[in-house]
């Protein structure tokens, strides 16, 4: 992509990247930032890392989320109530307990089949799975090499953004495995830990919540 002729040389590359990502309001690919600034992707990632560190302290109400291929500004969860009040934003509905359980199973064991999810929870999970797919928090990532080739599900980049995670490595440490006699207790703890990462309201953590 060729830059417009009227674009002037960028004097402060870091500030330019910050302005673009803030104005976008959605995840911006590092490749696009590289094309606009004339930098390499590696250098863009280095600058976004520096920007992210600036917003880590309590002086700022925003933070920069950095993912494998993109980055995005979002507000910090503790200010969600004030933002909704000031802007007249209707509170988004919390995920149901069943949806949080399914999300926890997928997040900690992905890729998984729906049969695995059902086995862990001990109930049919079709509705919760469909709801999470519709919300784009989980999605199909392949098919299991087994009779019937069932769909394998995994979490999405939107899941990371909504829960304020940079990668799956940032998930609260726990395990949900089969077979385990105490799997029900494990699942309850895991879903509560997952919900706690966004104050139990994952619909609100990014600008996408109000779309």
Quick structural summary:
The chain is α+β, with helices and mostly antiparallel strands and 211 residues long. It has helices at 13-24, 30-37, 41-54, 80-87, 97-109, 114-121, 126-134, 157-162, 183-196, and strands at residues 28-29, 62-66, 70-75, 138-143, 151-155.
Describe this structure in words.
This protein is an alpha+beta fold and 211 residues long. The protein has helices at 13-24, 30-37, 41-54, 80-87, 97-109, 114-121, 126-134, 157-162, 183-196; strands spanning 28-29, 62-66, 70-75, 138-143, 151-155. It has a three-stranded antiparallel beta sheet. It has a two-stranded antiparallel ribbon with strand order 4-5. Strand 2 (62-66) and strand 3 (70-75) form a beta hairpin. The radius of gyration is 20 Å and the shape is globular.
- Beta-strand content bin: 5-15%
The largest β sheet comes out as: 3 strands, antiparallel
Q: What gyration radius follows from the Cα positions, in whole Å?
A: 20 Å
Strand element count: 5
Order of strands in the sheet with most strands: 1-3-2
- Helix-residue proportion: 40-55%
Distance between the termini: 29 Å
| Shape category | globular
Unreliable stretches covering 5 or more consecutive residues? 199-211
Order of secondary-structure elements: HEHHEEHHHHEEHH
Task: List its salient traits.
single chain, 211 residues, alpha+beta, three-stranded antiparallel sheet, two-stranded antiparallel ribbon, 11% strand, globular, disordered C terminus
């Amino acid at each position: 992509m060729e830059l417009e002729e009227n674009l002037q040389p960028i004097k402060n590359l870091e500030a330019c990247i910050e302005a673009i990502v803030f104005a976008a309001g959605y995840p911006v690919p590092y490749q696009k930032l590289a094309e606009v600034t004339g930098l390499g992707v590696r250098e863009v990632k280095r600058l976004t890392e520096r920007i992210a560190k600036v917003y880590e302290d309590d002086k700022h109400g925003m933070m920069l989320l950095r993912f494998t291929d993109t980055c995005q500004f979002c507000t910090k969860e503790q200010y969600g109530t004030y933002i909704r009040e000031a802007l007249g934003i209707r509170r988004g509905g919390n995920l149901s307990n069943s949806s949080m359980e399914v999300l926890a199973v997928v997040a900690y064991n992905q890729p998984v089949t729906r049969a695995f999810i059902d086995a862990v929870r001990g109930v049919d999970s079709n509705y919760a799975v469909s709801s999470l797919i519709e919300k784009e928090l989980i999605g199909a990532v392949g098919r299991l090499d087994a009779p019937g080739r069932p769909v394998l599900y995994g979490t999405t980049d939107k899941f990371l953004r909504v829960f304020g995670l940079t990668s799956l490595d940032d998930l609260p440490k726990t395990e949900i495995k089969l077979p385990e006699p105490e799997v029900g207790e494990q699942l309850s703890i895991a879903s509560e830990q997952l919900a706690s990462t966004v104050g139990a309201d994952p619909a609100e953590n990014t600008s996408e919540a109000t779309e």
